[in-house]
Amino acid sequence: MTRVIVVGGGNAALCAAIGARERGAEVLLLERAPFEQRGGNSRFTAGGMRFAYEGNEEIRALVPELTPEETARTDFGSYPREAFYDDMGRTTAYRTDPELAGKLIDESFDTLRWMAGHGVRFLPMYGRQSFDTDGRARFWGGLTIEAWGGGQGLVDSLYTIAGRLGVDIRYGARARALAVKKGKVRGVRLANQEIAADSVVLACGGFESNAAWRAQYLGPGWELAKVRGTRFNTGDGIRMALEAGAASRGNWSGCHAVAWDMHAPDFGELDVGDSFQKHSYPLGVMLNAEGRRFVDEGADFRNYTYAKYGGEILRQPGQFAWQVFDAKVAPLLRDEYRIRRVTKVSADSLEELTRKLDGVDAHQALHTLQEFNRAVDRAAPFDPAAKDGRATRDIDPPKSNWANPLDTPPFEAYGVTCGITFTFGGLHVDSNARIISEDGLPIAGLYAAGELVGGVFYFNYPGGTGLTSGAVFGRTAGYSATSLTKKSQNR
Ligand SMILES: Cc1cc2nc3c(=O)[nH]c(=O)nc-3n(C[C@H](O)[C@H](O)[C@H](O)COP(=O)(O)OP(=O)(O)OC[C@H]3O[C@@H](n4cnc5c(N)ncnc54)[C@H](O)[C@@H]3O)c2cc1C
Description:
- The structure is a single chain.
- The chain is 30% helix and 20% strand.
- Helix 1 links the parallel strand 1 (3-7) and strand 2.
- The chain has two domains: 3-254 and 424-490, FAD/NAD(P)-binding domain; 257-419, Flavocytochrome C3, Chain A, domain 1.
- It is built from 14 helices and 23 strands.
- Helix 1 (11-22) runs parallel beside helix 8 and helix 1 runs parallel beside helix 14 (465-490).
- By secondary structure, the protein is an alpha/beta fold.
- Residues 7-13, 30-33, 39-42, 44-49, 174-175, 203-205, 228-230, 232-233, 236, 268, 274, 421-422, 450-451, 464-467, 470 line the site of flavin-adenine dinucleotide.
- Residues 7-13, 30-33, 39-42, 44-49, 174-175, 203-205, 228-230, 232-233, 236, 268, 274, 421-422, 450-451, 464-467, 470 line the site of flavin-adenine dinucleotide (FAD).
């Protein structure tokens, strides 16, 4: 029987372990975190997963509990493969590896159906990804379903499935190096032990939790970012593979980073999950310490800007910003604005509000907001579920959609800084999830999935693609680590 070691304990590792067991391997999963903190970044997510679909049929295949009444009052729209390709191309400035992106997109629905077949439950993401218009919930951003119970629910159910299938799981087990014999990977070294295997799948995250690597690769200042998720993703898998001769690949100076509460702790907290994020800025404006706007808050739907705007906030003086809204849009703010641990001020006038913004030039801030209000062209009606073209005129930066004057008290402002999610650079992997060496050949017995795969995301990211990528490449890595290794043994 083929022995496979999977390094990691998040979505990608669990899908790899389940895939390998399905193909008949004996599987050992090494999770660095203790049991209580298992599950990596995957556990901190909302469980939102992007996939290509033509219409209601695919949604129903993943959410069999959906009632006819729910279907009737929901416009799920469609998200064809071409749209997914366009989004991957546009957000990555067309640098995404076509083979890897193609696989991710083409296998997205099938992989989610595979997960559902094993017992993962999904539901429509009504709260965060649809707006009610004309009595119907309209989905607007290609991200339509989430795992039941969010990231926590997803991870728990994958661990249950893996356990049921007979995957051997060890917690507090940090892999430190690969055992390589005669050019083949033959196991993994822990602090005091070497464990032999026929193949190894690395699915142990990027290097977002390593402050020194962040400063080294992402650039000066990135050591100051808060980490949104697990503290355990310090780049071990990438380092181990590079030491074994793997080629590095992708956007090593790029990462996914978002607007995150300025007083959030240095690493994620499981009881808050992703709720320190503040993603309703398309409905308002953002001001920096100088009291100036610095991005087009309405350049696109949140799903296509949020992952790069964290970096924009990091580049502002003092690495912070305030998001400002008025009472007209307050009911539309996402659930994360209503948590207890939020940095918020409110006031009945813009003068009073700008004086309350800690660290901000209040005089300039007031001027910026008044100038913004004058610049809003009210010709196009406001529609949060569409790119409504309701824009500003003659100000820089512009606001291209959802521009409403801030004129209805009470006004609210939320203090944010940069929260890093995961890094984009990683290892060269082919579409069979084999890790490629610097000489351009697969390294025998070595596979990868998840955040540490390089070449998929550059500069930006379509929301909800990380979990799908981990699942697609995880399942493939599990299959390849079993079947391809078996074939090479039989040769
Ligand atoms: C707050 C937050 C919200 C997010 N929301 C979403 C969302 O809704 N949808 C979406 O698609 N994506 C989301 N993401 C991104 C998503 O989390 C990642 O893309 C995805 O979970 C990565 O999966 P992974 O298995 O590669 O990594 P992880 O889930 O991070 O797993 C890595 C695992 O490796 C383990 N590990 C690390 N080093 C070692 C070692 N040396 N030995 C053994 N184990 C090791 C870690 O303990 C961890 O269990 C979010 C991320 C965060 C932080």
